[in-house]
Every structure is written in structure tokens, then in C-alpha cells.
């Protein structure tokens, strides 16, 4: 879910920002660089402080909910789409997805079979491949949605993200007591 949502945000940013805000390539680059600059500070805060105060399953559920909030705020529905709406919702999605990635890997390392912790086909490779498949599906979604036109691209690509995010939250709630 997180790789899909992040790929949608990052890959379509140049098209969305040029359509809605007339941003140049350099403006998009600055926006993406600012998102990238949040990775290390967020991981330090989560790794040093938040993970010591909360269980991983609590952080997992909270991060998924915050990703959902970011996705919902990203939709262009009734009011004119604005730069603050796009930037803030993108920042919320990106930062919470980064938190989610760390928590997912932490939980995976605890529940992974010992057979998957050695050899070539290990848990890390499987996790990387799952993320790659999610990015490919997200890129295909953007490509297919592009045939509907730029005006519909944002909402059409966010709908699967919304569905996947809600499904992930429901799955987390269903298995919450088995997560440790």
C-alpha cells in the first residue's frame, strides 16, 4: 500500500502540478527535494523517540490512518484545487508512508520465518520485490488514467490508493491482536 501510494504521489507530481498550478520542472524538483529531505529527520524521530513510547502495531495503525487522511485531502472535489492543499496532503502522505515503511520492516523481522532470513530468496528480497510490483502497478494506473485526460488524472489515480489504504487499515484492525 505504501509503495503504491508513494509512487502515485511522486510519479504524477509533474503532470498534476503543471496542470493545476502551472509549475515548471524546477518547481516540481524543489517540491520533491523537500519531500526527500524529510526522510532522515522523520526516521530519527520515529526510531529514537516514538518507537520507545508506542508499540509497533500502534504506530502501524496510526500511520495507515494518517496516510488515509493525506489521500482524502489530495482529492480535487468541490473547491478550487490549491497549492497548499496539494503540498500539505502530499507531505502528510509521504511522511506517514515513510513511518509506515519502517514499522512494516520492524514487524516483518519479528514474524518472518527463520527460513526466510537466510539465503538468496530471503525476506528482504521478497519485500523489495513486493514494493517493485506495487510501483509497477501504480505506474500502470497512472498510464491508464492518463487516457481519461489530465483533468481526471488526480482523482482516478487516488481512488485505488483510497481503496487499498482502507483495506490495509481493516486488515490491520482484524489482525491487531496478533501483531506484537
Structure description:
This protein is mostly helical and 180 residues long. It has a single domain, classed as MFS general substrate transporter like domains (Growth Hormone, Chain: A), CATH 1.20.1250.20. It has eight helices and no strands. Helix 4 crosses helix 6, helix 5 packs antiparallel against helix 6 and helix 5 packs antiparallel against helix 8. The longest helix has 29 residues. The chain is globular. This is SPX domain-containing protein. It is a multi-pass membrane protein. Its main location: membrane. One of its GO terms (biological process) is transmembrane phosphate ion transport from cytosol to vacuole. It comes from Punica granatum (Pomegranate).
Topology:
Blueprint lengths: L1 H10 L1 H9 L3 H12 L2 H15 L2 H19 L8 H29 L11 H24 L3 H25 L6
Helix pairs in contact: 1-6, 1-7, 1-8, 4-6, 5-6, 5-8, 7-8
Poorly predicted residue ranges: none
Number of helices in the DSSP assignment: 8
Largest sheet: none
Number of domains: 1
Q: Any idea what the CATH architecture is?
A: Up-down Bundle
- The shape, in one word, is globular
Question: CATH homologous superfamily?
Answer: MFS general substrate transporter like domains
Q: How much is the average pLDDT?
A: 91
The percent of residues in helical segments reads over 70%
Q: In CATH's first tier, which class applies?
A: Mainly Alpha
Radius of gyration: 17 Å
Number of strands: 0
H/E element order = HHHHHHHH
Query: What would you call the structural class?
Result: mainly alpha
- At the fold tier of CATH, the topology name is Growth Hormone, Chain: A
Quote the beta fraction: under 5%
Amino acid at each position: 500500500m505504501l509503495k503504491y501510494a508513494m509512487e502515485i504521489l511522486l510519479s504524477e507530481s509533474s503532470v498534476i502540478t503543471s496542470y493545476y498550478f502551472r509549475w515548471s520542472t524546477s518547481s516540481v524538483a524543489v517540491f520533491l527535494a523537500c519531500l526527500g529531505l524529510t526522510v532522515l529527520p522523520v526516521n530519527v524521530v520515529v526510531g529514537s523517540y516514538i518507537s520507545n513510547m508506542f508499540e509497533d502495531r500502534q504506530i502501524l495503525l496510526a500511520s495507515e490512518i494518517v496516510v488515509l487522511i493525506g489521500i482524502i485531502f489530495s482529492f480535487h472535489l468541490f473547491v478550487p484545487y490549491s497549492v497548499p492543499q496539494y503540498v500539505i496532503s502530499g507531505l502528510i502522505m509521504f511522511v506517514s508512508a515513510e513511518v509506515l515503511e519502517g514499522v512494516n520492516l520492524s514487524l516483518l523481522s519479528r514474524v518472518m520465518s527463520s527460513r526466510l532470513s537466510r539465503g538468496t530468496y530471503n525476506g528482504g528480497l521478497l519485500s523489495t520485490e513486493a514494493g517493485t510490483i506495487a510501483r509497477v502497478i501504480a505506474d500502470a494506473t497512472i498510464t491508464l488514467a492518463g487516457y481519461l485526460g489530465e483533468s481526471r488524472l488526480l482523482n482516478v489515480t487516488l481512488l485505488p490508493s483510497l481503496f487499498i489504504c482502507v483495506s490495509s487499515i481493516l486488515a490491520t484492525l482484524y489482525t491487531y491482536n496478533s501483531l506484537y
